[in-house]
Write a structure and sequence with these properties.
Mean pLDDT of chain A: 87
Largest sheet of chain A: 5 strands, mixed
Distance between the termini of chain B: 82 Å
Strand order of the largest sheet of chain B: 2-1-3-5-4
Number of strands of chain B: 5
Oligomer: heterodimer
Largest interface: A-B, 24 and 27 residues
Distance between the termini of chain A: 83 Å
Shape of chain A: elongated
Low-confidence stretches of chain A: none
Largest sheet of chain B: 5 strands, mixed
Number of helices of chain A: 22
Amino acid sequence: MKLKPRYIILITLFIAYFGTRVYFALQTPYFTDDYSYFVLRQVDHITKTGRPLINDDLSYGGRTHVFMPLYFYILAGFALFFPKIIVIKIINNFFASTLILAIYLICSKIVKNRKISLICAIVAASIPTYINETLTSISTTSLVVPGGFFLLYLFLNIEKDKLDYLILLTLLIVLSSASAILIVLGLIIFVLLCYLENAPLEKIELEYVAFFVFFFLWTNFIIFKEAFLKHGLSIIWSNIPSNVFSTYFTNINIAQAVSSIGLLPFVFGTYTTYNYLLKKKSKNVSLFISLFLSTFLLFILKLIQTNLAFVMMGISLVILFGKFLRDFILSMKKTKLAKFTNLAIIIVIILLLITQLIPGFILMTKNNNIKKEYIDGFIWLKNNTKKDSVVIAIPEEGNLITYYGERKNIIDTDFLLIKDIEVRYKDVESVFTQKFRIEALRILEKYNVDYIMFTEKAKEKYGIEDIAYIHDECFDLVLNRTVQIYKVNKTLCTLKES
Amino acid sequence: MRQNKTHQILVLLIICVAILSFFHVLRLTKNTALPTYDVYYHLNKIKSGTGFNLLKENSYLLDVIISKSNNQVFFMRLLPFIAGLLNICLIYLILGKIVKNEKQRFITSLIVILSPSFIYVHSVYNNLFLPLSFILLGTLFMLKDKYFYSMLSLFVVLVFNLSLFIIILLLLFVFYEKLKSKNLFLPVLGIVLVSYVFTTINPGFTQPLSIYFLLTKYVSDFGALIGFGFFNLALAVLGIFLSWNEKVKNAIIYYTLIALFICSLYEHSFVVFLDLILAYYSGYAFIKIWKSKWQSKTLKNYVMLLILCGLIFSSGSYLNEMSKVGPKQSEILSLVWLKDKIKPDTKILSHYEYGYLIKTFSGATPYTDKTYFLRSKDKLKIKLSNDVFASRNLKKILDFFNKEKIEYVWINQAMKNGQVWNREEEGILLILENSPNFERQYDYFGIEIWKYKDLRI
């Protein structure tokens, strides 16, 4: 069988993109965010016991986790046979790279122009936020976003006898992350839009949407029921403390949106949304307008995290941008400027290179700034402290303590199901920013802390150079490298009555 | 045909026995105390009363009858169970009169059995299961045109539970519209007036209406003790939507649903009746989906499976939650311990929900109880106790204890875990720990009993 040239180009592109990603991802054996280490712990636990780590003795000194487990199982499956961190980085980037294929297929269906489809696929894959989220972090975004777009492609081509892949993909996405709600809501808005515009909907499309909605509701119900009972509707915000709320859920900021999505897709994608919502009609385009609207709606209501919102909106806008390009070229061909069509495409490509691809590439090179000495501090804990020691660090380093140090932390970035998270968050902040020893000792005793980890990240987070009260007989400096670790002298300094 | 009917009833009875027995087995393996704190209102009456003397105290008739027996707790478990079996038969027979499709009848009855509110009414002793039997019996007689027996049954309901008069009136209006009147105006006017009168004579509900309130109060999957299963509710909404082209025929039912919902905000147990109507629509939706032609049979099978799983999951999860519901053995032990140390007129401060429990096991007088919370118009004692619980002002707290002659404070884990306080040393907890006026006399398994000492003397 001979492959068509367009497929050869596409496969080459995919391999190049995947290769570049893997090259940059493997520049460091570490990950850029705290959540990745949580994933690694889950993978470890699954490979050892076959079950995810639900009752965790180390996180918060003992807590219960709630999450969709499938993605961890997939990674654990690979980690069984290959070196863990390397394979996870490769697999995670492999999943993320498939976005290029998904967008190409979708654009081929909607735009019906191979060149434009290729351009869109590359542009979508180089969205800065997407690279940031998936290059050196293990995130369900790597699976759910490409998977979601593959799903939408299959939905565009839905047929009675070809449902197996669609159903399989639905299970995969829903069981991997609660962010499948974006796709569910997108499909519901799509049905509503079709109804309002009298666009004929296939019966099977409605049947599939019903299946997706029921399946999503049921699974999320089972998994997150306890969390809902505990937190009420604020489960949507994952019990995030008010102090960090704005870092996860931000207000609309056009400049940030443009820099996260890219200038051309943002401007022309938005224009296409307006154009096809109010003037023209296209059922296929409506699907991606619906996805954009559902994400936008959840974003302005602060119901989804900013980064995920930018990724989903960005990719939807890239597809709509492709439609704009196609319409633009078609209308240009009807004018006296027809002979400049190729020139126009070249200009667009150059603009995309400047505004999108080069910044994306630069971002990839910047994503490997984690130093070995920093991680060594956490490994030191494992080798030099008692097994039941409790270590305090900033929330963003909590999972490093539990993964590398294998010791109990006071806080990490998984806030769900944690009682009094506001108090705990402020207590941790107070340990680092407090001026008075007595108050700090009160908090340290409250959480039975044995060690304080003081890192560059902590300095940056709280804007301090040193912990004010730390040079005292109550605290012994036991490690003094890039990371400083202080042992709390419990025998000498205690506030409890004997 | 008849054989098929008998067969269906038998299957339903077996399922009902299995579910209700499963609840009791699950409960007894974890906790031998009767489930829910409200039961202790009845147990207190039953244990303290002397047979028909209880009638003078305006007690529930069944409490009076049970108080004559030797094995009261056993009957408190058995009677709801038997009533459950009887009620499911009656529901099936009623559906036989209003639903032609046999499968729909069976599915609707099955949905009723699986519904959390049905499980609650027939697994926990309460003042609803027996009146419900008579309401269903009255409805069946009405449908069989035996009006005298119907009225007699409905009258018996009032003998057992006077607050159900509104249900009877609503039922009568529905029948009036269906059987006698061709005009919707009068029955609807009746429903509106009855609801208005009911909401006027009942003390107002104090909670602000919010999505969170509605979910946690009405949907058992979100924590409601008497509520709908989430999937029952979703299916019922779908059923109403699918039956919309028969809206004129169903109009009176829609008005009744709205009236019942409004009244349930004031008297939450009405959810049981609301659930019965919704079960009809759930069954309707289920059969509609089942019978409708789908382009993809695979998707249809998956959706049906998901709905069934959803229904079963809701009731399974409810059974599990109910088996864990209070009171805990440790709470009862603490009150039994306290009993020897106090006189019957000793006043104990706690959350109103534990009033009956405190009374039953310690013999002391709770400062407030649920009856006061539900029936009092000004709810002054609730407000005062909430103020004291939240206060760290020693003078204010001591004044309250002296004025109300409170001698003990009884605190359990639920109170410390969000019911009253969210944090350690919040409100009065700080004062209890640090003031010489309070002495911790009991502290086991999260239960604390504090004795108040008036140091002025």
